[in-house]
TrEMBL record:
Transmembrane parts of this sequence: none
Protein name: B12-binding domain-containing radical SAM protein
Upper lineage: Bacteria, Bacillati, Bacillota, Clostridia, Lachnospirales
Domain Radical SAM: 55-205
PANTHER family tied to this protein: RADICAL SAM DOMAIN PROTEIN (PTHR42731:SF1), SLL1084 PROTEIN (PTHR42731)
Organism: Candidatus Mediterraneibacter stercoravium
Length: 268
């Protein structure tokens, strides 16, 4: 039986406790001992805003179609729970299993707008994952950034292991397949990042040296590792009818900010 990360005393003393308990209609439960990859998918804002976002629903459904992968959801806690998590040293957790995010293989964060940048640091801090990618060890999840703001990833480059440039449906399966094989071999963290850097559309910041002009614009962008390509090409879904779409979207217990069904008819 699933045990909630927060006890009744906490849940009864915070605003909208349904934000944190999971178990919604169409949420996906799997046996964590029977999957090879655990992926925490994060929208760095409160639950009601994150549940309004179609992109998370698409990737959540796509990943969970894989038998070897369990994708779970993570959102930024409201200020009341943020304070409690820090005071009681409770690590941030995923909704489905209620397990700490730091125990996952990947933490994927969608970066939809610049105003959420500080929330990203909040997520990492509450998850007890080192803020800087250079400080992470073999015990930490790989932190991936995706979404529209990754077209200018440099302001956040030191906090992410990998950036996904472009639309997320195109090569994530290739990344997960590479991770599963790397996990079997027992290679180092850097070994996997080198494999990831060779997948088209993935940017691994630690494998590049970036210099700037005095006005803050980029002067040069050069790879410092043989595995890293000189140019990263954004990934585009050329035919939207070929893109995955959730047949059973997760239905929240509480009203979402955009309380509606979303139908995607075109992109671009």
């Amino acid at each position: 039986m699933r045990k909630l990360a927060l006890d009744d005393e906490i849940l009864l003393n915070i605003e909208k406790p349904a934000r944190y308990i999971g178990g919604e209609v169409n949420s996906v439960m799997k046996d964590k001992d029977k999957v090879d990859i655990r992926f925490a998918m994060c929208f760095p804002d409160v639950y009601e805003i994150g549940m309004s976002h179609l992109g998370i629903q698409i990737l959540y459904d796509m990943f969970n179609r894989r038998e070897d992968t369990w994708c779970e959801r993570v959102y930024s806690p409201w200020m009341d729970l943020d304070k409690i998590l820090r005071e009681k040293n409770i690590p941030l957790f995923a909704l489905e299993s209620q397990d700490p995010v730091r125990n996952f293989d990947f933490l994927g964060i969608t970066i939809q707008f610049e105003m959420c940048y500080t929330n990203i640091l909040q997520i990492l801090d509450l998850s007890q994952i080192p803020l800087h990618a250079s400080d992470r060890t073999e015990e930490d999840p790989f932190v991936i950034g995706g979404g529209p703001c990754t077209y200018n990833p440099e302001p956040l480059a030191e906090f992410f292991d990998i950036f996904y440039i472009g639309e997320g449906e195109t090569v994530y399966d290739e990344l997960l397949d590479a991770y599963r094989e790397w996990k079997k071999t027992g290679g180092s963290r850097k070994d996997f990042l080198r494999q990831a850097a060779q997948i088209e559309g993935l940017y691994v910041p630690q494998f590049y040296n970036v210099t700037y002009h005095e006005d803050g614009t980029i002067e040069s962008f050069l790879p410092n590792d043989p595995s890293a390509p000189e140019r990263i090409r954004k990934q585009v879904v050329m035919e939207v009818t070929d893109a995955p779409y959730p047949m059973k979207p997760v239905v929240p217990f509480i009203k979402a900010t955009q309380d509606r069904v979303v139908l995607e008819i075109q992109r671009g």
